[in-house]
Write a structure and sequence with these properties.
Layout: H1 2-7, E1 13-19, H2 33-46, E2 51-57, E3 63-70, H3 83-91, H4 96-102, H5 106-118, E4 124-127, H6 131-142, H7 150-160, E5 163-166, H8 167-172, H9 183-189, H10 201-215, H11 236-260
Amino acid sequence: MSLIEKCLRTHKWIAMDTEFPGSLRETSQNATDQERYNDMRFSVGKTKVIQLGLTLFDVNGSIGGTWEINFADFRETEDARNEKSIGFLKRNGLDLKKIREEGIGIRDFFLDLNLILKQTRNITWVTFHGSYDIAYLLKGLTGESLPVTSDRFSKSVARILGSVYDLKVMADRCNGLSSRLGLQSLANEVGLNRVGTAHHAGSDSELTARVFAKIFDNVGDSEGYIYGLGHRIISDRLKQEAMMMHQMHMNHVMMMSRCYGPPPPPFPLRMPRFVPGHPPFGGLVLVPRV
């Protein structure tokens, strides 16, 4: 934890990834935002995170360090889980027995992490398809159940985490890329090689950081948009930016009014025109021939 605290002094961008026991509810493609959120909230509330990957980097993309934290709380034979997801993690090399025996406690870790984050300002978080990652992080930092609605969830994330990006959203806005690409395929498209093993939280977070640094300059405004989450996460930075834009607009309006003054009132007509009894066209009266 002391290494993370020291690294955060100079590297205030954090790419993160989690490995968890999977979703306990299947969400239909036509589900509303609130229905998708309800399913995620149910799964995150019933399950325990297995791994957390954190990669700290700076605004230039220079990586300060990567940490993979294994949590001992998950018991494979007792805790809620999606069997297909557990099988997938095992096939990709996660030793759940070793993690259980040698891992650390979720509560103690997040208590320490929370203290560090409160002492560090202007942190920016980066995820890939990160709704579940952010949800487990929020659950760990608050020690509470997730908010009831998607809107409240977004506001809680903005208050506690601040600025958040999702690579999957960014890929959809970058020429030549797509949100249909997985993290590894996205890395291949931009010419980056992986360090470590896929679907391990540390390796995934490290690759997320490098892909983000690679495409960030080619993507428009995408902060706060999380793939699968309907409400934008409005950080203090976005609020300040919006206030500045509003102030600039008001200043422009005031400057224009000083230069040109208010628009003149409509010129009043001395006499009404084109009404019964008033001849148009210079006062000539057209009399029909009999």
